[in-house]
Amino acid sequence: MANKRKKKNENILGLMIFVIIMLLIAVGILIIFRQPETQNKAKNFFTYPTEYEEYVIKYSAEYDIDPRYIFAVINTESHFDPQAESEVGARGLMQIMPDAFDWIKFRLNDERDITFDDMYDPELNIQYGCYMLSYLYQDFDESYELAAGAYHQGMNAVHGWIEDGTIDPEHFSINENLDDVPSELTRDYIYKVMKAFEKYKNNSQLEEDINNGKYE
To answer: What is the pTM of this model?
Structure first.
């Protein structure tokens, strides 16, 4: 009986020591993250990546499209891997397709000696992707959601959904009628882009860079 009581007391003591250690750890973390420098690092850690910021800000300004939206598309398309290639042949950061490359090159009247192989180049890929998204954004009456859908499924498909009444372009958002999009993959894509877009809007350092005209 005495042994059982002793063992019980040891278990209680062990539990109390464990609780005290966890409390000390929690207090230590709280103290560390209260430091201004650590807070800034923590804030940056919990935001989405902003690699290739120079090119994104440069070409989004040139083609009049929100750079945070461009980052959202890059994050969704390739997770910032410039060598990414899809099963259907899309290449680079913004996953440009061969026919899209030809169309953009023609629209830009780009006389540079570049080929589809150059879509692995981060700057060229971002330039072409920014132009295309800007075009789609204007074509679909400044709807980021529909521009994302067209970037994924093709502008003809999205125009077809609008013309046959499948989706209402004037009242379309991920919170209202995303389920109207016939393609499950495109619905998922639009949702991911727009959620990432929201994340990038909360990136204070990126917003500061944009407002200050960084890289101009």
So the answer is: 0.77
Question: In degrees rounded to 5, what are phi and psi of residue 191?
Answer: -60, -45
Measured distance CA(161)–CA(8) in Å, rounded = 70
> Which among 58, 93, 92, 91 has a CA at the least distance from the CA of 75?
93
Instruction: Tokens 């389920």: give the residue.
Output: 179
Cα–Cα nearest to 119, from 94, 151, 136, 99:
94
Across the strands, what pairs with 96? 91
For every one of its 216 residues, what pLDDT tens digit does the chain have, with 9 covering 90 and above? 544 454 555 556 566 666 566 665 554 544 433 444 433 333 344 468 999 999 999 999 999 999 999 999 999 999 999 999 999 999 999 999 999 999 999 999 999 999 999 999 999 999 999 999 999 999 999 999 999 999 999 999 999 999 999 999 998 999 999 999 999 999 999 999 999 999 999 988 888 888 877 776
Please tell me whether residue 34 adopts helix, strand or coil conformation. coil
DSSP-based three-state secondary structure for 96: strand
157-181 per-residue burial string, b: 16 or more CB within 10 A, e: under 16: bbeebbeeeebeeeebebeeebeeb
The Cα 60–Cα 73 span in angstroms is 12
Q: Which long-range contacts (CB under 8 A, 24 or more apart) does 71-75 make?
A: 71/196, 71/200, 71/206, 72/48, 72/193, 72/194, 72/196, 72/197, 72/199, 72/200, 73/129, 73/133, 73/148, 73/151, 73/193, 74/126, 74/129, 75/48, 75/49, 75/196
